[in-house]
Fold these 2 entries.
Entry 1:
Amino acid sequence: MSAELAGRTLMPLVVVALLWPVPVLLSRARWTSRAPKAAAITWVVYALVTAYTLLLTLAFSADSWAIAGLLLLWMLGRLLQTVYTLRGSQRRHQDALAMVAIYDPELRVHVVDDDRALAYCLPNGAQPMVVVTRGCLELADDAELRAILAHERSHAQNRHDLLVTGFLAWQRIFPFLPTSRVAADAVCAVTEAWADDAAAAHVSHDVTLRAIMRLGSGVPGGLDGVGWQPDPATMARVRRLLDQMPERRRYAAGL
Amino acid sequence: MVRRDHLERAVLESLWDHPKGLTAQEVVDLLADRQLALTTVHTVLDRLRAKDMVLRERDGRVYRHRAVQSREELTAQAMLSVLQDSADHRLALSMFVRSVSAADADALRQALDEPQAGSKTSRLGRRRRP
């Protein structure tokens, strides 16, 4: 009897905690930026536990299997819808790339003849594609390009698209819950940190930083007096890489 | 064995070279070194039409096929969808730097304000399809 009472009062509190303060605290936690892989796993566990607890609470504490069933259907439906619509637009983009991009076997990337400097990883089933523009190849020097490609290959090899897609769906499952967006943004930041670590390990921290500033500002040559206003997410990446740099090398890079 | 994409690309490229349009037989003749069967070219053209890359018009007793967008337009549109993705996540890309430079953002804003795809690229200083 007392267990039932506890269940009825405690479970809703747990659900509220999972839906509100927990993701906010997790997104602000310092350790996540030092350990992006652990952070990614934590976010996945968080989402699974939250969905499970929410469904159980509805079923048992609120005594309504119907509502729990409807919510489960809604969750699965939104997930499928997200995967389906993303896959559709990704296919269309791929169709266009298949007509205009040229595969560079040496760099192992698809090159698009466009002035704008862009580099990205396009989700493509089990084999995400790394794409760069001619503008990017012209703008970045060899070392910067190695950092850019190492970053994008890390996205492709570690299947970051699954994480990003999953949390885009999460955001669409709870469209009126601001913390679902917090979670999705945090997961994006985690994948970027993960890929930045791969780039820094492959080349170095300062070259990775230079590559971010290069593509962000679109300015070739030296980076003195570059007027560039990065968005908050990019600024966080820059700060994170700076924090990880040993002092001496930070000054050597002139940053 | 020729990959499907390569064949579609070869056919589309010959349509890009002939803006006035080609019949399936003309495509077969242009790609003579590949020794394609007429039915193969018909299939490829149908696939390109399904992708909204090619349209056909009746010209007497035959169909003439034209590319819907020039190579430049198709490229520009693909890159615009990449730039736009930082706003709407329709492609769920992982871009190296999401913050777009001022010039790109300008071009994007102008292009997205335009209702027609045809005028999109001309504002970006790209050649229009003749």
Note: DSSP finds six helices and three strands in chain B.
Entry 2:
Amino acid sequence: MITVIDYGAGNLRSVANAITRLGYQLKVTNRPGDLAGASAVILPGVGAAGDTMLSLERMGFVDPIRRFIAEDRPFLGVCIGLQVLLTGTEEGGGHQCLDVIPGQVKKLPPGLKIPHMGWNQVKQVQSHPIFKGIPDETNFYFVHSYYGSPEAPEVVAGETEYGISFCSVIVRDNLIATQFHPEKSGEPGLKIYDNFLKFASIERE
Amino acid sequence: MLTKRIIPCLDVKDGQVVKGTSFIHLRNAGDPVELARLYYQQGADELVFLDITATPEKRGTVIDVVERVSREVFMPLTVGGGLRTTSDMRRMLQAGADKVSVNTAAVLNPDLLREGADKFGSQCIVIAIDAKRIVNSPGPRWEVYISSGQRPTGIDALEWAIKAVEYGAGEVLLTSMDADGHKAGYDIELTRAISEAVPVPVIASGGAGTLEDLYQALVAGKADAVLAASIFHYGTYSIGETKQYLAERGIPIRFS
């Protein structure tokens, strides 16, 4: 079963709506034990990485998420769900994150409006099934003030320009994460979910 | 490059769109879900719902609208009108809204912005400001009005915008009361003054009559997004035509 993690914040409903629209069944859960039997896990999110980590820690999700990813099972992080995969964030005075992708979460540089809010292009810097049927430089909807900066260039699958060029899509084995919100990005966004679920070999029900 | 957003605004009363619409091919032009779907298909970048339901007992109707729209329209939704507390905000966000806009309640209690930003993140707290130009002022100045433009506050719009962002608003929805409804263009001077003063995105609202007006708000007014109601609802311009025009004039625009 596709399992969406509910840690008390985030835009769960939009994510659930998108997956339902594609014809898949899903389960929203606040129980860490449910990850063990999940066929794919989605970690959505809005807000701040530090607050999200505090919620995940309090609810006991940290180890189950790390284990799920270590077992190389299909995992999709969205927005804050990308940022918390890194080692740590400088937001809110600094906070440790899940540390499954070595790297830091940094503030977008000054000079442009913050948050980076609206539709911006994703440059596909490597070919990957998550981009199947999606043209290079397609626009997706972003809203964030911080960005994940992985140490290993080979995990960067997509990049976006906003003052700097930052990593907007991470891939590593069965782990995929996007800084943008596919559930708010129209038909190309739905395609991202569909590609992920096909990549995870999930059947429509 | 970040594209400029084109945002249709729907006034919703008791669950129905109230500003008349002339989409003859819609079964029910007053149905916010049908209209939202049409704008989604046309390529709108975002939608704003302004709830103008007068009676508190009917306030639940907009929640139902947001729930139904978010099931089939996969773009950002902002809901405003009558939100007083963080519980009100939570209900909208849980129904599927991505952002909530507050106006009167934030002027009366700016801490609402801080509480909302702490609970949900500043990216989903929009400060809506209705501003009216102060006549006979030595320099250009604008006053904040609340209660649907009925009550002057004596507060300077520029100072309020800066303060509201400091309190936690992540975006400004700026309406010129002088320009609103006249279709003679946005108040460019106001838009530019606020946009240059705050570090967050500004949506220009009020006064759109031609596509040149939208262009001016984005370029001369330095707005990050433009909101319009009647030019879209009455079919004067489609979203597609609007985007084509702006793109030809060199504005970064998304085509889906």
Note: Chain A touches chain B at residues 9, 11, 13-14, 17-18, 20-21, 46-48, 112-121, 139, 141-145, 161-162, 183-190 (CB under 8 Å).
